[in-house]
Amino acid sequence: MNFREREVKIAYIREAIFCIATGCAAGLFVYGLFLYFNIAIFGWNLGLIFAPLSAGYVETALANRIIGQNIGAISAFITFIHTTFCSFILKNPTLGVNAITAISLAVILQSAFPTLINYIIMVGGLGIISYFSGIFNRVTSFFKRNIEYVYYKYIVKKPHVVEVEVVKAFDEEESNQRINELNFFFMTSTDVMDRKIVNLGQFQANIILEKDKRLVNSDQKKVEMTTLTNLKKGKDDSLIKLAKIISEAGGNGVVDLEIEYGLIGLGGDRYQISAMGMGVYLT
Questions:
Q1: Tens of pLDDT along 146-164?
Q2: Positive or negative, the Cα torsion across 95, 99, 103, 108?
Q3: Residues whose CB is less than 8 angstroms from the CB of residue 73 and which lie 6 or more positions away in sequence, other chains included
Q4: How are beta strands 185-186 and 253-264 bridged, if at all?
Q5: Could you report the per-residue pLDDT of 5-41, keeping only the tens digit for each?
Q6: Hey, where are the domains in the chain?
Q7: Global pTM?
Q8: Does 176 or 132 have the greater pLDDT score?
Q9: Of 90, 130, 232, 238, which residue is least crowded by CB atoms under 10 Å?
Q10: Are the C-beta atoms of residues 179 and 186 closer than 8 Å to each other?
């Protein structure tokens, strides 16, 4: 390293230290204002968040103007350490790790690495939301269908034949036989005629069914048949589960029986089938 390069490096370090010191001073000044005017929420002074943010902003603005580049918002870290660990934790150790500290750390990271943090928030966060809400699946399915259409029409030049899986028809007779073998009374009304009744209270049984994601690209007839079969099976399973719960409580029937169907989960990706009614012992 020659003399000129050394002078340039020393000047760079001096300018960087000036930017960092000015940023720290700005952060401490902002923190002092928040303390003086007691700007707080639920007892937490908001200077804990805005002081590091102000320090990082002032340092970055000065560094871009004087040095011509961002030096990493070092003053934001220094201000955060001072305000959190020195001013708070040392004076009141019971505060420790909390939501305000976590928010301050997030603000500092945003000041120091804006591109990286924004990428994580935008790509990672939106990716997670779209995946669980079903948006990702719908978008990819849309592109897949269009790519297949173009491929078969313009490249292969033949019709696109989609193989449809044959869904086994729902056997109503077999289902009824399963229910009858329970030796249990299912009644949708409260009229039990000449029987004596012992009320055991209200009971409910829930069955959760996942939607078959493989049906996204299938024809509508297959989707309806598969969904209907699954719902009928789920209905029987909920009745059997309800009968088991009531039998364990000493009953042998249910009156005022109701069955409800609903969608639950993010984007309605699951079915919930509920069987409910008043458990009874009939003699």
A1: 787 777 778 877 766 555 4
A2: positive
A3: 23, 55, 56, 59, 60, 108, 111, 112
A4: parallel
A5: 676 678 888 888 999 999 999 999 998 898 888 887 7
A6: 3-112, 172-282
A7: 0.42
A8: 176
A9: 90
A10: yes
Q: Exposed/middle/buried for 273, CB within 10 Å: 0-12, 13-18, 19+?
A: buried
**Rounded-to-integer distance, Cα 194 and Cα 49, Å:** 73
